[in-house]
Amino acid sequence: MKLSALLQDVETKTVCTVNPEITNITDNSAKVRNSGLFVCIKGERYDGHDFAQKALDRGAAVVVCERDIGIKNSIVVENSRKAYAQISSAFYGAAHKKLKMIAVTGTNGKTTTSYIIRKILENSGCKTGLIGTVNVLIGKENYPADLTTPDPADLHRYLMLMKIAGCEACVMEVSSQALSQQRVSGIKFDCSVFTNLSPEHLDYHKTMQNYAEAKASLFAASKISVINADDEYSSLIKKEAAGKVITYGIKNESDFKADKIALSADGVSYRLKFRDKENYVTFDGMGLFSVYNSMAALCATNAIGIDMERASRTVARFDGIAGRMEKVENSLGINVIIDYAHTPDSLENAAKTLKSVFHGKLITVFGCGGDRDKEKRPLMGKIACENSDFVFVTSDNPRTEPPEKIIDEIVQGISTKNYYRITDRKLAIKSALYSAKAGDTVLVAGKGHEKYQILGTQKIYFNEREIIRKLLEDKARF
């Protein structure tokens, strides 16, 4: 594609005198190929402008930057992150304009809500792709996910592949970092969903206000905004919403309201009231947050024209998602649950839910990720010990931080004595399983769907399902 076609929507400060054919685009100088376009982006650790000459040496035909860096074939733009999104959209044929685009954002519940929405659309005859934390689904193809919301080039390539595969819609999780970094800039969403907001990513956003404003920016680019009326930040989201606003909730006044709620180990059921109508919903997910997630999906799909009764039947048959309150079946009578809970709010919700539906002891295994928000570590230690009978504090993707140091910071928030610290995560899981008796529950929290541990800068294979099944088999032999 000619450079001029890629720049048609980009606000430039300088005029480029060349118009080469561009064959690839990237913001990673190591991925530049001949006739490529390299976008210089200033990040927290690295500044792409420092790698511009390297990109040219590797074959880049053009460099897009935010300041004059004194090299040939460079184009200065107002905002290189925004330009990267616009250029990526043009390069991959602006496929988002040909798809029904549905976004889900919030601290917790994004993945489950997204999967339910996709399932409802598929069962209503609308072929739908999905982009999110667990994976990227395009037709029958399943791609691994590195980021909740991919960088612009990967994102728009996926959207193009969806269109080629015959998809009519895309459901995607949109993270606060992606919004701050303008990865979805230029995409007009047909419907966006707000699930909830609680402290997370404050190492990046610094304050809850910044975090909330990043989330709210999504709704300024949405035709329909579906908002959790029970969340304290709902008024901010509503204020930013540019299109039609639809609310859902349990406590506060809302357009879609759930009552007659029943929670059990087998799932949830409730009555959903809307527009002088009512519909009874069952969902195979534990806890009050399962009511919110399923209700959000039903509201969103109803807002874009899907019949509520038909959608509710799909919700009733929904199979669940790997790593989201996932049950590991066994012959020992132990309730073993794997959950992605890695925030104070999600860990508390998971623990309280399990305590309410199972009657034995709750034994929790959890840790906190390295090189991430440190403020939540003591809070999560406090929450785990207050809501569990016993806790094994362990490692969880320590990255470049010493695992023992992370655990030291977690236990600072613990004032009780109902915990052990075991750095080796496999040993911590084994200790929890071997201490559990029939009727007890073991919650293994933090990694969910992930099949790896990040030690230093390396990803090491670590599949908790396989580990747990093998440990349970070994225990059953004794």
Description:
The chain is α/β, with parallel strands linked by helices. It folds into three domains: 89 residues, Udp-n-acetylmuramoylalanyl-d-glutamate--2,6- Diaminopimelate Ligase, Chain: A, domain 1, CATH 3.40.1390; 222 residues, 3-Layer(aba) Sandwich (UDP-N-acetylmuramoyl-L-alanine:D-glutamate ligase); 151 residues, Protein-Tyrosine Phosphatase, Chain A (Alpha-Beta Complex), CATH 3.90.190.20. It is built from 16 helices and 23 strands. It has an eleven-stranded mixed sheet with strand order 8-7-6-9-5-10-11-12-13-14-15, sandwiched between helices. α4 crosses α11.
User: Distance between termini?
Assistant: 66 Å
Q: What are the low-pLDDT stretches, counting only 5+ consecutive residues below 50?
A: none
Quick one: how many beta strands?
23
Tell me the structural class.
alpha/beta
Specify the helix fraction band.
25-40%
CATH topology of the largest domain: UDP-N-acetylmuramoyl-L-alanine:D-glutamate ligase
The number of helical runs is 16
Identify the CATH homologous superfamily of the largest domain.
Mur-like, catalytic domain
Give the biggest sheet: 11 strands, mixed
Task: Report the average pLDDT across residues.
Answer: 95
Strand order of the largest sheet: 8-7-6-9-5-10-11-12-13-14-15
Strand content: 15-25%
What is the domain total for the residues? 3
